[in-house]
Amino acid sequence: MNYKLPKLAIGLLFSVQCLTNVANAGLIDLNTWSQKGASNNGNWVVAADGTSVLQTTNGNPTFFVSDESFINNEFTGTFGVETASDDDYIGFVFGFNGLDDFYLFDWKQTNQNLGSFSGFEGFTLSKISAGADVSSLNPLWGHSGTGIDVLDTKYDTNLGWEDNVEYEFTLGYTNSSINISINGGNFNNENIFNITGLSNSAGSFGFYNASQQSVRYTGFEEDVLPDPQSVPEPSTLAILALGMLGLSLRRAKK
Fold it and tell me: Signal peptide: which range, if any (predicted)?
């Protein structure tokens, strides 16, 4: 038998395919990114194909961020420290709208004091705002001072990053939530932070190092997270399209 599909069902199937394509944006080209902060605070070396970057300097905080702003997005990629020298901070920034307006996720290998400031093994999620000094180590090292608001922490032994281990990182950043997970080494797709009820705004996504060299970030992708309040999920559209398809086949058979 030769059944003909109604135009509505065909359109719905096409819409499902389009939404699937939009949600798979592919690799981010790091050649379009730029360093922020003092120029001598880092050295970010991008691979020729733009899929990876190596930060080579042990020094003050340094940032390498996208030229595009994001909200309601998920980022995935791998990163790791390619040396057994030093034990300090690696991480990410997002919602970045300048050096006085961004979220900071950082990860330290071991406990260590820097003068009166203490850095702890594990993870910290902070909101950086006006008045924060991000040009030198002290304020960010201890996550304290003007313009530094710690949202959550996860400190303990065996939570530090390991030398020469590649980790997979996932960040979900929406207009009301932050979800971060790590996979690799001692972590098996472990959810590090899941914070809701926020009021977030669009901003750049990027990488962060402080007093840590030989850190490589590779193969980062960005996917769009659907807004359930305004856009039907692809699965919902698929169910509706299949329903229309079944109805059309039933009518054709009759």
Answer: 1-25
Instruction: Name the more confident of 12 and 75.
Output: 75
Burial, 131: exposed, middle or buried (Cβ in 10 Å; 0-12, 13-18, 19+)? exposed
Q: Are 118 and 147 in contact (CB under 8 A)?
A: no
Nearest to 215 by CA among 76, 71, 44: 44
DSSP structure string for 44-107: EEE-TTSSEEEE---SS-EEEE-SS-BSSEEEEEEEEE--SS---EEEEEEEESSTTSEEEEEE
Instruction: Give the whole-angstrom CA distance, residue 84 versus residue 89.
Output: 14
Contact predicate 74/221, CB 8 Å: no
What does the pLDDT look like over 138-147, one tens digit per residue?
999 999 999 9
Q: Other C-beta atoms within 10 Å of 128: how many?
A: 24
Which pLDDT value is given to residue 13? 44
| pLDDT tens, position by position, 41-56 | 999 999 999 999 999 9
Query: Is 111's pLDDT higher than 50?
Result: yes
Q: Provide mean pLDDT across the span 187-200.
A: 97
Burial of 5 (0-12, 13-18, 19+ CB in 10 A): middle
Cα separation of 118 and 138, whole Å?
9
**pTM, to two decimals:** 0.81
Q: Specify whether the CB–CB gap between 208 and 90 falls below 8 A.
A: yes
**pLDDT given for residue 39 in this prediction:** 84
Tell me the C-alpha to C-alpha distance, in Å, between residue 48 and each of 34, 119, 167, 191. 15, 35, 22, 33
Sign of the dihedral through C-alpha 91, 95, 99, 101: negative
Taking CA atoms, 245 is separated from 9, 11, 21, 127, in Å, by: 6, 11, 22, 49
